[in-house]
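Kindly inspect this chain:
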Amino acid sequence: MLPDHTLQTSLQKIKQTKLSEHPPKVLILYGSLRPESYSKKAALEAGRILESFGAEVKVYDPEGLPVFDRQTYDHHKVKELHELALWSEAMVWCSPEIHGNMTSVIKNQIDWIPLSLGSVRPTQGRTLAVMQVSGGSQSFNAVNSLRVLGRWMRMFTIPNQSSIAMAWKEFNDDGTMKPSSYRDRIVDVMEELFHMTLMLRDHTEFLTHRYSENKPEES
């Protein structure tokens, strides 16, 4: 037995979907607790760019979030993260690269976001952009690992991504980013995320329907 899909019925469902007109809701996570965190600065730069496009942006502060233990779900920082994940329609994950991978700070935040909260899946169908900063030469290890996590969390990770080499050179004293090809790439990534979110957010149920979870029981 196969799902009852045809070209005509599928196109009809797409055409019947009413498009939302509210600002896209974007949650940004960054992967460092340092006061002079460059991943935070890059994340805030991405947030400002998204806001200039008309998005509503919220940035989660990971300070005080307990280490993931599958138990402390009533902690106020865990509850805050869950509420933001449910609120969001898109996410940006930005991590430093350390020892060739993402940091424990960003992984801890993602670990605390469950695949399901009751009957709701707080990440399924959300769009995602991944970014990283490096202290040395350009690398893509962290963003590649973040992509694996995005797929596991059932998110639509956009093709474009940002990797900032020698990040300590790329920011002004006020935390804003200097004009460069690195900043141009962040603009590109946020533009793609903004557009993809507008295109996909109202079709989440249609796009994430799974036959294995909806097939009728055999009599």
Q: What stands out?
A: The first helix runs from residue 7 to 16. The CA atoms of residues 19 and 186 lie 27 Å apart. The longest strand covers residues 90-96. The chain is about 40% helix and 15% strand.
